[in-house]
Amino acid sequence: MSRAMYLRVVTCDNSRECYEKTAGAFNLLFSGLEAKDVHIETMAPYHKIDGHGEMGISFFLEDEAALKAILSDKWEGDVTDSRWANIFCPQIAFMWLTAASS
To answer: Are 93 and 22 spatial neighbours (Cβ–Cβ below 8 Å)?
Structure first.
């Protein structure tokens, strides 16, 4: 059974090109994982780090573990960071993944 999930993504910059590359990577990823009702928000400036961008992605997915394995090779709880993990998309600085409770 699919679970409602939300991925918060902070990118290394907030340019249109960065948004397009990041959104394109997620569209391919979610298509391959057969995620449903994927909605990628428009990028906004990230308030904590000047020049970084922030976007949210909501979706329904059955296999959270498969998604986490693709997104990064190291997670601390629901957070991964490019400083200490290999993240699948070079434009991404860090991500938070949350799932709705059953």
So the answer is: no
pLDDT confidence tier of residue 48, bands split at 50, 70 and 90: very high
pLDDT tens figures, 18-35: 999 999 999 999 999 999
Q: What is the torsion angle, in degrees rounded to the nearest 10, for the CA atoms of residue 96, residue 38, residue 66 and residue 68?
A: -10
Structure tokens that stand for 26 in this block = 């997620």
The reported pLDDT for the residue numbered 8 is 97
Q: 23 and 11 in contact (C-beta within 8 Å)?
A: no
CA 39-73-64 angle, 5° bins = 40
Using the Cα atoms of residue 29, residue 24, residue 37 and residue 54 in order, give the sign of their dihedral.
Answer: positive
